[in-house]
Design goal:
Layout: H1 2-21, E1 24-30, H2 35-53, E2 63-69, H3 74-87, E3 92-95, H4 99-112, E4 116-118, H5 124-132, E5 140-142, H6 147-163, E6 170-176, H7 179-196, E7 199-206, H8 214-222, E8 227-232, H9 236-245, E9 251-256, H10 264-267, E10 276-279, H11 290-302, H12 312-331, H13 337-345, E11 348-353, E12 356-362, E13 397-401, E14 407-411
Parallel strand pairs: 1-2, 1-3, 3-4, 4-5, 6-7, 6-8, 8-9
Antiparallel strand pairs: 10-13, 11-12, 13-14
Helix pairs in contact: 2-12, 3-4, 6-7, 12-13
Length: 429
């Protein structure tokens, strides 16, 4: 017992010494027990290790990474940000938080003025905050396309595939009761009818702790809609498996976060076939460029527990942390937030596959108007909403899990490696 205690004390002292010796301290905020949170954390860990191995930053300073667990809870998220700011006194925060949690700690970010990068949250309302008050939001960046951009491209999928190919004329929306669910619901309902020509029959909201979806699916069928649009970022494998087990006679597509990971098939007990979901890039079933593949190879050699490959936000964390450090190099550190933010806006990483642009990690400035939506997206990741995708990658792709357990990209067509199909139990229209 005494020996174990001494080992524990020694390990703690070594960790404390390493942290104290570091010149730059990065704080991770997110869930330490979810695939989403671990994707960001591990992407950041690999980036830190590579930067330190290459000699550090800002004239040889080493980087230390400390963590604060949110448990995907808003109150805990606020406490976590306060801990990173007040106790750890971090220079930079990298977030794997879900939307509601990020919204909770945003006022703390404005108060502490710590440069912060969100790798998972996509809430367009945060980008609107930057438009409305750029000074207060100067430290904040989001390197995933905002949900408005995601939904905009998904509407194109509705028009090009769901209506033109499948003949669907109407939809019922099943949306979780979260900020993410409300945001996507609004975007989808406002655009599906006028843009894609698909009538929204009903919107059904459900609690994220729902365990019996039979009544929900019954209500969806009674709506008379041709297909279901699912919006689920929490516990979405539960709805997915019950959809298959109940053989609901309607196609189900939309936003299914559990389907973004390779664990989805096992998590649903093999009852995940037919489900399709939008996904930011890179996604499961998506062909990788050499740089992204090298990151995955390093990841899989280092980690043996889930997630087997990082979700998209793991890639965002890996590249985003390196870009944040490059911006600090130009700005002379993180203390001058205005200088750092200006340098961060200039970061631009272009990754090619087979001689063509495949992924681009950069940020919209304050004044550039995105041509499809006709609005600005300051501090948001670059995205392209129309083919031929020569400016940046699409804001999202649609992936579909087949009944044999395989998964592939079905849209946009330029990135597709399989076709969208109906589950075997769903009758063709």
């Amino acid at each position: 017992m005494k020996k174990t205690t001494l080992i524990g004390i020694g390990a703690s002292l070594m960790l404390a010494a390493a942290s104290a010796a570091a010149d730059i301290k990065v704080g991770f905020i997110g869930s330490l027990s979810s695939d989403t949170g671990l994707s960001t954390l591990r992407g950041a860990e690999i980036a830190v290790e590579e930067l330190n191995a290459a000699g550090g930053v800002l004239g040889g300073q080493k980087i230390a990474l400390v963590t604060a667990d949110t448990g995907e809870d808003v109150t805990e998220g606020i406490k976590a940000y306060e801990y990173l700011a007040e106790t750890e006194e971090v220079d930079f925060v990298i977030s794997g938080s879900i939307d509601d949690v990020s919204l909770g700690w945003l006022p703390r970010m404005q108060e502490y003025r710590i440069p912060t990068l969100d790798t998972w949250t996509s809430y367009i309302g945060i980008i609107d905050m930057i438009v409305e008050d750029r000074d207060a939001m100067r430290p904040y960046f989001m390197n995933i396309a905002s949900d408005e951009a995601l939904a905009t491209l998904y509407i194109s999928f509705g028009a090009d595939v769901l209506k033109a190919k499948m003949g669907f004329e109407s939809v019922v929306v099943l949306a979780e009761d979260t900020a993410f669910g409300q945001a996507i619901t609004g975007l989808v309902t406002e655009a599906l009818a006028p843009v894609a020509g698909i009538e929204v029959k009903d919107v059904i909201s459900y609690d994220i702790n729902t365990v019996d979806f039979a009544p929900v699916f019954a209500k969806a069928q009674n709506s008379g809609a041709d297909f279901i649009y699912q919006i689920s970022s929490v516990n979405s494998q539960v709805m997915s498996s019950q959809y298959v087990k109940l053989q609901v006679p309607m196609a189900m597509t939309g936003v299914n976060v559990s389907a973004l990971g390779l664990e989805y098939w096992d998590d649903t007990g093999g009852n995940g076939g037919g489900i399709s979901t939008l996904s930011p890039l890179p996604s499961v079933g998506f062909a990788l460029d050499p740089v992204s593949q090298a990151f995955v190879d390093t990841y899989q050699a280092k980690y043996t527990s889930r997630p087997k490959i990082p979700h998209f936000n793991g890639f965002n964390a890996y590249h985003g942390l390196k870009q944040a450090m490059a911006a600090a190099e130009e700005a002379g550190g993180f203390k001058d937030v205005d200088a750092w933010a200006a340098a961060m806006l200039k970061q631009d990483l272009k990754l090619e596959k087979d001689g063509q642009l495949w992924l681009r990690y950069g940020f919209w400035d304050y004044d550039t108007v995105e041509p499809v939506t006709g609005r600005t997206y300051p501090h948001n990741a670059y995205f392209d909403l129309a083919a031929p995708y020569d400016f940046a990658q699409p804001s999202m792709v649609v992936v579909q899990w087949k009944e044999d357990g395989t998964v592939g990209v079905v849209y946009p067509f330029e990135y597709a490696n399989t076709e969208f199909t109906l589950p075997s139990w769903v009758p063709e229209k």
